[in-house]
TrEMBL record:
Protein name per Swiss-Prot or TrEMBL: Protein spinster isoform X3
Transmembrane segments: 87-107, 127-147, 154-173, 179-201, 213-232, 244-263, 295-316, 338-361, 373-394, 400-428, 440-462, 512-536
Keyword tRNA-binding recorded: no
Main location group: membrane
Region (Disordered) location: 1-80, 550-572
Domain Major facilitator superfamily (MFS) profile: 89-541
Organism taxonomic ancestry: Eukaryota, Metazoa, Ecdysozoa, Arthropoda, Hexapoda
Topology term for the membrane: Multi-pass membrane protein
The organism of origin for this protein: Drosophila arizonae
Protein's gene: LOC108615407
Amino acid sequence: MSLKNQQAYQPLPSAVAAMDNPAMSNSSSSSGSNDDVAELVQSGLPPTYSSQQLVSSDSDSMERQHLRGTSIAPEPRSRPGISRKQWFAVSVLCFVNLINYMDRFTIAGVLTDVKKTFAIDNDSAGLLQTVFVLSYMVFAPLFGYMGDRYSRRWLMVVGVALWSTTTLFGSFMQTFAGFITFRALVGIGEASYSTIAPTIISDLFVDSMRSKMLALFYFAIPVGSGLGYIVGSTTAELAHDWRWALRVTPVLGVTAVVLLSMLKDPKRGESEGVEQVERASFCVELKDLLKNRSFVLSTAGFTCVAFVTGALAWWGPNYIHLGLKMQPGNENLKQEDISYKFGLVAMAAGLIGVPLGSALAQYYRTRIANCDPYICGIGLFISAPMVFIGLVMARSNGTLCFLFVFLAQVALNLCWSIVADILLYVVVPMRRSTAEAVQILASHALGDAGSPYLVGAISTAIKNKMLAQSRTVDSDVLKSMSQLAENATEIVTETLRARSAEDVYTFESLQYSLFSTTFVEVLGGVFFLITACYIVKDKSRATASVLEYSEQQRQQQRQQQQQQAQSNTNNA
């Protein structure tokens, strides 16, 4: 790597000296006034640009010059609003993210029908989601690497076109092997979009405005997931074939491809005033990210969120259906009805949870500098007992079950936009796509890639153990009963009782397996609390690096202008 690039991320001396200064907590509430700026300069702290605006305004440029000790004083000017280009970009990205998660959880809404069609058990059903996420996480680093170097717009266009096509083709597969193969290909296409889209938002907005736009973007995740259940179950019921449920999102995908092709790709670091830079090697960037403790710890916490979300989203409708079906009068309860209600609950939880998390973060940042990981950790601690109670209530009271599932998802959804925001302000702009890819790889590899299969495999193992013990007991009972009387009525009764017992074992085994998600939530909360110890330092370091590099760029531009002026003078 060149000397120029090595120097690009060295923090300002004054910023390094101030990283341990508690006054950093007040920098996020700066109003942009000259008195506040002067106070920051005296304390040696770098500005964090926390005001709700774009950094590319002239007043901000003059303010930064004042912070570097120049004699230019900032003049008060009106703050720019959001342009049509920015609204169009955010709208398109949110729409694609919505149908992205619709497609991802459509199968969960018709999982019972899929299991019957291919004659598979819970372990194979969980494998459907696992192979999708495995391919998704394997290709995420590749798209992250390319997203930091090539056109992000066309990478997303190709990716969305790929997952739309493979989803459509997969709906025509008649064998489980063919179906699961196309589910893996869908993951490749979705990896391109999910890795790159948040970095475009980060290059259009900063600070509180960026937080709001990220909340809007991640708001599409729970809402899209809920729509996946609803659209999947409703379409399957209307068409009398679950395969038609997979043919809805490909049609919307064609619209998404057209809209993405019209999107303008902003310069990387545009919102922070950083121009295109010389790239370091991928290994150098990866080592730098692994040294970022806030990034590593928040990724670990988010991995726990992904584990719980993946398990509950995949098995939730099926589990609740099994529990409610055992209640008297619900023998003919349809999976589609439960999936529809579960989708409504997921959507409502997303409508409340994601904006609430963003609003809490923006409110407390002016009071507590490291509030973001605290909010995420507390959200997980609240969600864990709600999940446990919801799992217990599934068999006895459907209303209370859905209520506690709703509360658990609201608390869990507090994390989505905050975790994305943490990544964007502790990582320099030139490495954000790579950081997104690393976070996706880690969170899916140890999170929702394995959780659906792991939960399904554990439940199958527990159920088989229960059935084996039951058959041993039933065999002894039948032998003793046969000595007293042998008639057809008793045989039929025992057969019906065995079938009922198998339903109970299927439900209970899945319940015991899903209890593991509560422990994972507590572990994730601990990771976020540890993140709070380092996040102020890492944020100030990233801000200082951006300022340092911006100053280097301006010096180079002044030198080029001087050389050009000198050349013109000599020619004259």
